[in-house]
Amino acid sequence: MPTTQDYSALKKLNEEQLPVAKHKLHDWTHFAGLYAAEHVAATEFVIGATFVALGAKTMDIILGLLIGNILAVLSWTFITSPIAVDTRLSLYTYLNKIAGDSMTKLYNWANVIIFSVISAAMITVSATAVRFAFDIPAQLNWYPTNMWFVVIVFCVGLVVVSIALYGFNAVSEFSGICAPWLFVMFTSGAMVLLPALSLDVLGTTLPSGWNELISLGDKSIWTGINSAGEPGIGLLEVIGFAWAANTITHFGLIDMALLRFAKKKSYGLATSTGMMFGHFVAWIAAGIMGAGAAVIIGKTIVELDPGDVAFYALGWSGFVIVIVAGWTTAITNLYRAGLAAQAIFHRHSRKKTTIIVGLITIAIACFPFVFSQILPLLTYAGLLVVPVGAIVFAEHQIFPRIGYTRYWSAYRNLTFSTPAIVSWGLGLVFGFGLNAFNVMSFFYLFIPTWIFTIIVYTVLAGKFGAKNKYPEEKEKERLRNEKIISYQEEKSLTETKPVKDTTLLTKILKVVSLIALIITLILAGIVLFRSASENIYIENRETFYYYAFICTVVYFVTAYAALLRGKSKNIS
Predict the structure, then answer these.
(1) Nearest 5°: CA angle at 18, between 14 and 20?
(2) Which spans are transmembrane here (predicted)?
(3) Helix, strand counts (H, E) of the chain
């Protein structure tokens, strides 16, 4: 049992520095909802349309996204989840344990940059919906061409910064509400605009079968010709991007922060809700919506921004989907950037660092290139952190198997790990060097970079002390872990357990919100399957716009009311 002195020492530690307590673990349904919420987002509008501009073919998109997203799910399941569940630590805590403060600070700087840019891209995406409502021209250059657009970006950005400061928990819960609605709206948007494409290419509102549907895709959406009029990307590139899009979180191990709460390692498979619905379905739907909007407006897809696409696919609900999807993603990433900055400037509060990082992020968001270049930005960001994931993977999974000592750096009380810092640096030189010499597609650069870093770190760590045995330190570590478990078990007895709201009114609210989603899908189905002519199609589309917006309002009012009732139940 821990002594009074042990309790005092443990209480002084931030909870983030301790392994997750057993009573705080979650079932797979929690992670299914979490990943669905995070990966059905505003980026899907941009990425879906980008595949069209890059000149992929229809079957390459269907097969490539399927294979690539399955590989991503397996990466979470077999790389990230086992380490997260074994240690119950976030990557930041684990990294500090094996590499010291210097490496951790460098890594936090990388995270500040990465998450600020991603957040900026989402603010820009949200601003495209607002600019459309005020009839401000689309921003298609890398720089802003309209001062009112800059004003809108600052207004949208200030809202994001404010919520990141004071309401992150509420936003996390609200993201869970948004996930099913976002999926319904992406699916509905594709159903609503597919007849417009079919009319333009086939002369009818609906393809007669699978072959005609693929032919429609090849002729009007994924044509195999990029925006420059040249042959586009192929199957391997599509697979590579779908796999590489989230290397930050799986090969880069950022999602140890989430999966450390999983009861089982197999819960990494729950990421499939985000990959199969958010990436596979939503990217395809976004491509259809982009091409359909281009036909209606009479422009090419590269001349449109998410605001254009969303409005012609979903009407006023389109404004909501772009703002909400960008809003939730931007806030989450800005919060992460603020935390990383606070870890660097630890004398300042998280609120202060978030304000400073937020203002810089807003300034970046004024330049539309951040969302128009989201594919390479995500890939290069992944390449930046993949070597760190490789170092942790080597330490945790490989060292015990080859007779090296895990946590050797901590056992030696090192605050500066030369093997870790040198391995990260050489990994970056290797990865970006491969890209500079165009050795292979940059979508796959993370794989050789990851393997190279593992080899370098293993060799260097062996020379610096990983080969040695540390019996006394290992025993101290074992005893410390036992004390932590006992401390957390006793602490759990005094914590209030959440109460599930099962009242009749809450059930009614949830049922009404579900019915609103079902009605939206039915209306979209009527547009797709019950539009015998162009006039009927236009009439059905207008009906969808009107009632889908009503359903959107009903959904959010009832779903959020149910959430608030559940929270009040626990507060009381």
Answers:
(1) 120
(2) 61-85, 106-127, 147-168, 180-199, 241-262, 274-297, 309-332, 353-371, 377-394, 414-436, 442-460, 511-532, 544-564
(3) 24, 0
Instruction: Take residue 196 and report the two structure tokens written for it.
Output: 């417009």
DSSP state of 203: S
CB atoms within 10 A of CB 1: 9
CA distances 302 to 53, 145, 244, 299, 309, Å, are: 7, 17, 23, 8, 11
The 10 Å CB-count burial string (b at 16+, else e) for 465-496 is bbeeebeebeeebeeeeebbeebbeeeeeeee
Total length of the chain: 572
As a whole number of angstroms, the distance between CA 172 and CA 311 comes to 26
- Give 567's pLDDT tier (boundaries 50, 70, 90): low
Is 223 in a helix, a strand, or coil? strand
- pLDDT tens column, 461-499: 999 989 999 888 888 888 888 787 787 777 777 766 666
3-state SS string for 341-370: HHHHCCCCCHHHHHHHHHHHHHHHHCCCHH
The structure tokens listed for 53 are 């501009």
Tokens of 362: 């807003």
At 225 the three-state DSSP class reads: strand
With contact defined as beta carbons under 8 Å apart, do 259 and 85 qualify? yes
pTM for this structure? 0.86
Q: 188 versus 496: which is more confidently predicted?
A: 188
CB atoms within 10 A of CB 532: 12
Query: In this structure, what token pair is assigned to residue 42?
Result: 């505003």
Q: Reduce the DSSP state of residue 412 to 3 states and report it.
A: coil
Sign, Cα dihedral of 293, 298, 300, 303: negative
| C-alpha span between 442 and 434 (Å, rounded) | 8
| 535-567 CB burial, b ≥16 within 10 A, e <16 | eebeebbeebbebbbebbebbbebbbbbbeebe
Q: Give yes or no for a contact between 248 and 39, defined as CB atoms under 8 angstroms apart.
A: no
